[in-house]
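call fold(seq) -> tokens
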Amino acid sequence: MSDDNAMSSNGREEGRQADRAGRPVSFLIGWGIPLLAVLATSFLAIPMWVITLVWVAGFAWMGIGCVLNARRCGRRHCFYSGPVLLLGAIAVALVGSEVVSLGPHGFVIVVWSTFALVLLTFVPEWIGGKYVRR
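ret:
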């Protein structure tokens, strides 16, 4: 094994160990609970301002978690999904508070577009690997 391969393998191992998304409890706190909270708003009869607040908080919480995780372990997906989630939080706030109007389904469009973009942030991991070299 060459030194480059040893360093790459070692770097990936360090990244994996520092990856909060790879640990069940950390994943649950950072992404699972906020995701459950935002999805619960679909099944509860609550005012739109509360739904907006929950979605903004959920997207912001997950976005900050991704940004911190990217800095901590170099997770490629988190470098992209963090900003996408933070922008999604801003967009949800603007549409949910009716500062910006995207029609009767604008809120749903913003939410699903954010989710779709977050799913697309996994593609770079398939191409370039899970962790960015440091």
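The radius of gyration is 17 Å.
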